[in-house]
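Work Package 3 committed the consortium to producing structural models of liganded targets before the mid-term review. Because experimental data for this complex are still outstanding, the team generated a predictive model from sequence and the ligand definition alone, so that downstream docking and mutagenesis planning could proceed in parallel. The input record is reproduced below exactly as it was submitted to the modelling pipeline, together with the SMILES string for thiamine diphosphate.
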Amino acid sequence: MTEPNDARLKQIDAHWRAANYLGAVQLYLRENPLLAEPLRAGHLKPRLLGHWGTQPGLNLVYAHLNRLIQDTGDPVLLIVGPGHGAPGILADLYLEGTLGEVYPELTFDLEGLKRLARWFSWPKGFPSHLFPGTPGMIHEGGELGYSLSHAFGAAFDNPDLLVACIVGDGEAETGPLAAAWHGTKFLNPATSGAVLPILHLNGYKLSGPTLMGRMSDRELEDLFAGYGWRMHLVSGDDPVRVHRTMWTELEAARDEIRDIQTAARGGRMPERPRWPMIVLRTPKGWTCPKTVDGHAVEGTFHAHQIPVTDPAGNPEHLKVLETWLRSYRPEELFEASGAVKAETVAVLPPPEKRIGRNPHGNGGLLMKPLAAPDYGGYAVEVPGPGRVEAEATRELAKWLRDVFRANDRARNFRFFCPDETTSNRMEALFEATGRAWIWPRVETDEYLDPDGRVMEILSEHTCQGWLEGYLLTGRHGLFACYEAFIPIIDSMLNQYAKWLKEARETSWRKPVPSLNYLLTSHVWRQDHNGYSHQVPSFIDNVANKKSSVARVYLPPDANCLLSVADHCLKSVDYVNLIVASKQRSPQWLDMEAAKEHCARGISRWDWASNDAAGVDVVMASAGDVPTKETVAAVQLLRELLPELRVRTVNVVDLFTMMSRRDHPHGLDDGAFNELFPERVPVIFAFHGYPRVIHELLHHRSDPQRFHVHGYREEGRTTTPMEMLVLNGMSRWDLAISALTRVTRFRSKSGSLIDRLENRIRDHEAYIAEHDEDLPGIRDWRWEQPAGEAPLDADHRPVEVR
Ligand SMILES: Cc1ncc(C[n+]2csc(CCOP(=O)(O)OP(=O)(O)O)c2C)c(N)n1
Ligand SMILES: [Mg+2]
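The resulting structure, written out as tokens with the ligand in place, is given here.
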């Protein structure tokens, strides 16, 4: 334990003042960055943007972490929850030289200082928050709530890493942050790094007090003890005393972390590890003017954004601002040339240990490709289309189990799931690994393991945050979730997709593994649940994302799911959404055909088409249940009206539907119109809301040919077929839709439609009486037309055994 001494405390204070000064300068000045001249209105930015209130706290933490790293050599990744305090962090990164490494114009002279000041919140300059262009950072902190789960995600499987995580006290009121404190119960001190939360208790959020700010020290201590933390309090408004306490408490925290890790790594796993955390109780906006126009500012929410609001128009404000800025004594911290004085940065660690240089902050640098066995070895045998059934997720889990085994040494793959791994029929994973769990266990527990790699907590936010932190530090993962509840993290996905887009535009950021979702237990098969569990809207959200980032896959069977999952897990820098059912369902393609189908993303299924002499109607589908229904409708049409020339098309990669100019996966118009000839009706059975398909078709010619059936917010706890009937997507509805749109058989179609409507009525009557679907529905199988062998993708007959 290093004791504080006055000389080094002075160095810390100098660093802190310099960062506070430069933070304030970024809010206000475009000229005169060192106040060499008296401040004039002409030196000010025309628009005063940004946030002051959090900066002094962020800068205090930064200066003290620098001291800690200097003394210990510990690599520290910093996560800044209040990302709106960006000017402070940019100042810290500037002072340590890492900002200048990626923006060489930010030199250590007056010009460099002026640029730093000007660029902040300036068009084409730095944005108001941290962003992918900030070195050393993996967290933006624009939308509050995710800092702590990101921190845990980064710490998993990085045993040497210390992740310091600043949490705003307003941020701490969010649901995602509240759940994330429980990360202690999943973090194995033997094999993972440490998270040191620093709760920034400045007492206020944007315009009101914070709940935790008004809790007593004792109440906070009790609260955090229950979460698994030992609280270290650093409190006050006298910088000299606060620096000293911060030093000693940070040292104590670091020692406690080492004690836990040493014990666990020596084979003595603590039963309920109590990890240290710091509560930093200092005034909001600390060191800014105490009052402006007679109103209290320092220590209140009025310090949140711009403490002195009208320096350009009000001479009194200009004076207050100048006095405030000069209170940091910039002349002591910088040379007149603008160079930073040696004493100001004496607390910096050696260059390779600086926070902005931490390679975990640019995780692609550390990424190792995922090892994965050839998924072809996990193929479901498919002797002919629809001849066998399988549960797609159960098959996938066998391959994933072996992905875990293949990466056992690298320790760079985790599976995240809100308590549904068994419900999703993926128990095979537990043959390779357990559920992470550090807390006490009882005999009846199943698969709990301190070193488990299946991360189950009933908090979609925490799963998502952990995974993001894990990916951004260069590791791989998959998030499996009930389809209906993944929209809980819609907003997190929005933010992550923005991060990815900007990261891709940042030349020095290396690609990171893609964010992969597997949505199973989907809308069409909620036999145990019902209406609340029927929500396919996540597709809509992903479909709105930048085409450089988003991908959506709807594999129709297990072999296609294997192929898609392999592709997604090996990709980088995307958001990949896979929707696939866990239910027993018909298998259509053998592995060779599946590979080819998935590589194309969309294909005509010859074995279910009789379009050699032309096409009257295209029966298309995307999604496993819609595909089965479509194939069944094709069979019905064949029985009812053999002369009807039907083409069957299946879509795996949803964005093939888009025009090539809107999405790189879009089919070119020629190929698209070959599959879907213009003026030929397309009956499209879609997994989600029909509007999605209509929107994707925006730039296609003749979009009126598409008649989309999908989920229309009808549902119950009912039979699988009733779900389809309620939403107009049953085989009967699809066949009716086809007969209605094909004009060539007008004379016959009326009576055929009547027959189909009668079948719907029979179905209704049967389920009302028997609580299950008609036997012919339950046992339905695709029948290859008599005398017609199914054709493979190259139009060769497939031998039917
Ligand atoms: C989820 C979310 N809700 C609301 C906001 C708007 N907002 C920005 S800063 C802020 C107050 C933050 O308070 P706190 O976390 O205490 O930060 P600090 O006091 O350190 O500025 C709010 C409400 C946001 N950014 N994110
Ligand atoms: Mg606050």
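Reviewers should note the following from the model. The first helix runs from residue 6 to 28. These observations will guide the Year 2 experiments.
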